[in-house]
Task: inverse folding
């Protein structure tokens, strides 16, 4: 019996030593939600001066969703400096799939969450999709897409994707690195990953 227990303990110990560590902040969900909302406010205010937003109701890391996150993030990290490994790991883990955007955030302005089905209905009718969109949402700067936010353990560095499409050939997507000082998130660096 002792030999079996010793063998099992040895195997588990070796497996733990060879596993690649993945950082996931050990923070409460409430802490993450509060900071994620603050990051969204910082990037939206920096990019736009508007009284309302139309935000896709699920997260994405590029126009296609989250399928290319790893490849796109590798490109971004080659063009950004001083991204903490734990911020990168947190971003990868938190964007392993598409997640619902919270409908009750306080972004300081009004916002509407748009589902893919609603978007398809607006733009599937005819070539006047953007005209129809702006008739429904006259104060919006287009359709905004956000990722979940990756954080370091100290919650003073954050990485997020922000994409906006405002017409058929008017849009861009950025990965944004932010830093927090004195309780305020500010943009440190941006890397564009697409433009139309």
Result:
């Amino acid at each position: 019996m002792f030999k079996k227990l010793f063998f099992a303990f040895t195997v588990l110990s070796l497996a733990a030593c060879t596993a690649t560590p993945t950082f996931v902040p050990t923070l409460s969900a409430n802490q993450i939600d509060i900071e994620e909302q603050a990051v969204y406010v910082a990037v939206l205010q920096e990019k736009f001066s508007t009284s309302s937003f139309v935000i896709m109701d699920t997260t994405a890391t590029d126009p296609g969703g989250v399928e290319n996150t790893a490849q796109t993030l590798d490109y971004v990290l080659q063009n950004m400096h001083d991204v903490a490994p734990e911020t990168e790991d947190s971003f990868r883990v938190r964007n392993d799939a598409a997640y619902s955007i919270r409908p009750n955030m306080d972004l300081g302005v009004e916002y509407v969450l748009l589902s893919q089905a609603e978007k398809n209905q607006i733009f599937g009718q005819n070539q006047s999709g953007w005209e129809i969109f702006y008739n429904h949402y006259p104060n919006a700067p287009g359709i905004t897409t956000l990722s979940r936010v990756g954080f370091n353990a100290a919650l003073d560095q954050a990485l997020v994707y922000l994409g906006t499409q405002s017409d058929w050939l008017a849009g861009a997507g950025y990965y944004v690195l932010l830093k927090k000082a004195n309780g305020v998130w500010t943009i440190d660096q941006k890397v564009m990953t697409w433009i139309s």
